[in-house]
Write a structure and sequence with these properties.
This protein is of the alpha+beta class. The chain has a single domain, classed as Orthogonal Bundle (Arc Repressor Mutant, subunit A). Helix content is about 35%, strand content about 15%. It is built from three helices and four strands, in the order βββαααβ. Strands 3-2-1-4 form a four-stranded mixed sheet, with helices on one face. A hairpin with a 6-residue loop joins β1 and β2. α2 crosses α3.
Length: about 110
């Protein structure tokens, strides 16, 4: 997995590239912000509740309101193999989607 973050775009936008298959996808501004938080957690991973707690104030809403959007995005990203779901206390596999490389801009 690799990602490019165009920080000069207003708002910033991420493009994900699935290296084994060559698939790519552009994320919406909100999905990009969620992705930034996922990448920032590194190998420890991120969970929906933590993401909601972190992002709700930025969007002027409650964690429970934004959690639905986060859940939908995470389900889609796991289904499409952009992320790997790991049970609580489990270990991330060596080919996990969380192994993102930043190319051209910080996250």
């Amino acid at each position: 997995m690799a990602h490019v973050l165009d920080e000069e775009a207003d708002p910033p936008q991420a493009v994900l590239l699935h290296l084994p298959s060559g698939r790519r996808t552009g994320l919406s501004p909100t999905a990009t912000r969620i992705w930034q938080e996922i990448v920032a957690t590194g190998q420890k991973g991120a969970d929906q509740a933590s993401l909601a707690d972190k992002l709700a104030p930025e969007y002027g809403t409650t964690p429970s309101a934004i959690a639905l959007d986060i859940e939908a995005l995470l389900v889609e990203m796991v289904t499409e193999d952009w992320l790997e779901a790991v049970p609580p206390g489990g270990e991330v596999g060596t080919d996990a989607g969380m192994d993102a490389e930043d190319e051209g801009g910080g996250s």
